[in-house]
Fold this sequence. Notes:
By secondary structure, the protein is an all-alpha fold.
Amino acid sequence: MSTAGRSVWAEVRGRLAAADPGLLRFTAGLRTVLAIALTLAVLAALRLDVSHLVAGAITAMVATFAIREKARSQQAVTLALGLPVALVSMSVGAFLNQRVVLGDLFFVALIFCAVYSRRFGDRGTALGLIGFQIYFASLFVHATVPVLPGLYVVIAVAFGSAAVARFVLVPQTPAGILGRLRRAFRGRFAQLVAAQAELLDAGADELDKAVEEVRVRTARLHETALLIQGQLPDGTADEAVARLVQRRIADAEIAAERLGLMLLTARSARRADTLTLHLPGAHLLPTAPLPARDEALDQLRLDLEALRLLVLRPVGPQPGTALSRLRNRLLGYREEENLPPADPAVQDVFRGVGEAARAVMGLRIALDGPQDESDDTPATSRSREELDAEDAAIEVAEEDEGETEQATGLRRPTTRAAVQVAVGSSLAIVGGEFLSAQRWYWAVLTCWIVFLNTSSTGEILVKGYRRLLGTVLGVVAGIGLAGLVGHHTWTAFGLVLLFVFAMFYSAPLSYTLMSFFVTAMLGLLYTLLNTYNVDVLVLRIGETALGAVCGVIAAAVVLPVHTDRRTDELLVTTLDRLADVTRAAADQLSGAPPADLVEKARDLDQALADLRAAVQPLTHPITPLRSRRDTARYVVALLETCAYHARSLAATAELLPTHPAIAADPRLRGAGQRIVHNIEAIAAQVDDRRPAGEIETGPSIAAMLEPGTLRAPRYGRVTDRVLRHLQRLDEAVAGLARPLKVPVRARAV
């Protein structure tokens, strides 16, 4: 392949990796499609009828997507255990097919056990899901005792095909997933740099769109960093290597976000607020466009493109390559004497480019090993020495894990959910029987599904709404497809495979879209079973609506977890994690012994991600409470701003042992204490179980150290950055007081 061809292929791979981090969605869809296709091929060779083919397709799909363990050995054990579970479930379904009351009672008990089994981890979840879905398949194909031997063959073939697809056709290892996620991180990093370059040249009428694009791509980069964080323990054999990669990913993410903020500042009349990146729809302050012809800005445009190329392509082994020269030039901006003449805000952007280039080099070394050093400039050599010193200083810190109180009885989330879904399913069975004596199980399936991966009444309501919308659209598509396909069996199965892939690929992106593909696929399956008509698909809408309503009723009446309560609990957890990171970073910057700050920062990120998911019912467009929606969005945006500054402080604090430009300052501990006190006061206000306090405001962080301004000569550039992060964190925490109704006390200077 020519150099140009390799370049194009690398660009395509980078875009694919960035669109689907780790190719997780693509791999899940492809593995499921291959398992179903292999099952259909074997069953067709055995000359089984269409109903057996449909049962095999459903079983192969379930046997593939139900298993979520990371280790291949654990996946094999779960798959082996799932086979007898599926055989028993199909047998009971066939035996109870004509025993309505007994069958309904067993179905409710099975649903309870399937949801309750989630407390036993991924394996319990998988086996419960297999048991429920295979019983549902027995109802779908109207299984009876005389046809059980043929169905046993179908199930065995489906599980065997799922094993072949998982372990032979589309093998997937934690190390392989981690490798693809690394490529995805680089791809999204490059996309963010490209968006930042567009922001630099955006006109007044394009500015808001450019800022929004930077915000979206910054969030996507952070999402990929979290995915890598989850894969590191299983994807790396050496804990020290995992910690090194974790650190370098965090450095690169912070450098990329900081570069965006510096660009925003260069476009604004004053220092840009981080809310511009964290609050959807936030506007940049009105400002005149940057001059079109300016030598420094022309150079900056070239350097941003150089940074993008440096992210995507490794520096070659031969010295003197174009990329190595670009790398050396960008790293030179870390030295004051190499900065081009320009406005101070623009010079800050050049510094940000240099720091981003250093982060990219550190990431390359961590992922790909040592690089050729023969053409290093003095600035590059200094950056490399800093990275080597940091790598040598990284030690695996063992954190004391305190015992946390575990909920018991009906307070346990899995037990509560099992009781709720059992009650909701009972209502769905009764109501579904009134709608249709033959298709009542669709209501039960919807009730079951809306409870999966939800924790509050509001989440269930939103999920039920999305499923109903997707079902309505899918029915319309199913009517048209059924008319086109007619009785062409293999054409219908081909479309089924296409929809299965689309279903898995779209699932993490849009639950409505996934429901659309599921319903369209079911319309084709009904066509294959010769039970299709428009009334059947319309009935599915009614059963889906009934199941969603029953799920909401059960969630609201039986052991309810209200959305406000759920979000308050997660908000308190997020604030506690924020206080931990801030306290540890301030202490380390003050001279305290090193702590595992990166791990604490990632715990904060995970808590914030959980909160962001939980507030979706409050921020959904259909919510009638506009004021509460705006408040929830504002609070989450402020917390994201706090998390960014806390991550930056943690990353800077970890440089203390090795970075010559950073020295501990005992005065920072006192400055950090006010911030930690304010965070804890807000958490106490949200958590009724704690004595509430009030937050303190007063002089700036810099003024608390000693009189003067950040422009005073005694403050170095890195110290200035630390103080800015502390100041912005202090301001963001204080900003949480108003929406959360926390009393404020101004402290005298």
